[in-house]
Write a structure and sequence with these properties.
Number of helices: 6
Shape: rod-shaped
Distance between the termini: 126 Å
CATH class of the largest domain: Alpha Beta
Radius of gyration: 42 Å
Number of domains: 2
Structural class: alpha+beta
Number of strands: 7
Order of helices and strands: HHHHHEEEHEEEE
Helix content: 40-55%
Strand order of the largest sheet: 4-5-6-7
Length: 199
């Protein structure tokens, strides 16, 4: 009887060790690992989406931009500058004509292109600018005064006012100064309202 009980006990212990419970525990561990991997992948995906949303918001709010976006913006700025120069070419050409007319004492042309707030003193070859913040007189500029002219910029103050800036460079004497024209629209035509020298 003792032998039978021991034998039965031995078989029960052996059966318990190899029971499906053990394999079930292994399967449960595998299932847990799989669930954790799936959860980890899902969390990574959520983080990527959040980062993408943050970047999008930063760009919309004027924050950091990608290199591509910065390049596109730079190209747009350059394009705008070119368009502004093209748009103002008529005024730039008029400024060059005014330089030539001063050099040639072409009073008729100069009288036709000055604004109502500007006077022309032919006797003394002087412009008198009165329709400006600081009224002033300006002697005619000749080729001898100017040296080499260089267009520096055009700037639209508003739809009816444009500033055109030139550099006058004397390479021989290593000197230069800036000439700013202000053109305003009167009766649908551009007129010189100011010519100011900044030395």
């Amino acid at each position: 009887m003792k032998k039978f009980t021991l034998f039965t006990l031995f078989i029960l212990v052996l059966a318990a060790c190899n029971s499906p419970q053990e394999s079930s525990e292994n399967e449960q561990a595998d299932d847990i690992e799989t669930e954790e991997a799936v959860d980890g992948a899902a969390q990574e995906e959520e983080e990527k989406e959040e980062n993408a949303e943050e970047k999008s918001e930063q760009t919309e709010d004027g924050g950091e931009m990608s290199a591509e976006e910065e390049e596109e913006q730079d190209t747009a700025i350059e394009s705008t500058d070119e368009n502004e120069k093209d748009k103002h070419q008529e005024i730039v050409d008029l400024a060059y004509d005014i330089f030539d007319a001063q050099n040639d004492n072409d009073y008729d042309f100069l009288q036709s292109v000055i604004s109502k707030g500007t006077k022309l003193d032919k006797k003394n070859t002087i412009f008198i600018f009165e329709n400006v913040t600081y009224p002033h007189e300006q002697e005619f500029l000749t080729d001898d005064d100017l040296g080499e002219l260089e267009l520096r910029y055009t700037h639209e103050e508003n739809a009816d006012s444009v500033i055109v800036g030139f550099g006058a460079i004397d390479y021989e004497n290593e000197s230069s100064f800036v000439i700013d024209f202000e053109f305003i629209k009167e009766d649908g035509k551009w007129k010189m309202n100011d010519m100011d020298i900044n030395k």
